[in-house]
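User: I'm designing a mutation panel for Cation transporter and want to avoid disrupting the core. Could you give me a predicted structure to guide residue selection? Please restate the sequence first so the numbering is unambiguous.

Assistant: Good idea. Sequence first, for numbering, then the predicted structure tokens:
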Amino acid sequence: MKWILLAGAILSEVTASLSLKAALDNPAFFIVVVLGYSASFAFLAGVLRKGLGLGVAYGIWAALGVTLTVLLAALLFGEALTPVMMVGVAMVIGGVLCVELGSHKEPAAEPAKEVVRS
């Protein structure tokens, strides 16, 4: 369930960000902006309530949000999408993967057993 909530947070944030650009030409999109960002934070709060760590949840939310926004802005608004930008997006995703993989706790070592001598 937490992953579905996180997907909702990402998609609503991307929708709000893209709508912000669209609102420059059509102010009615400001309604979508407000609703999208509000929904995004509500979904993110739900993710945290489900137990996903803040660093992991926020990292994935931000990285996928940036990635989708860059790609969709190029597709929908004709914004630039250069090789350097793509390398940057890949680095953001790689960094978040490192945070996610590093967030898992190592299993605790068993305590050493005492040897009883008589």
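For picking mutation sites, this is relevant: Residues 54-77 form the longest helix (24 residues). The chain has a mean pLDDT of 89.
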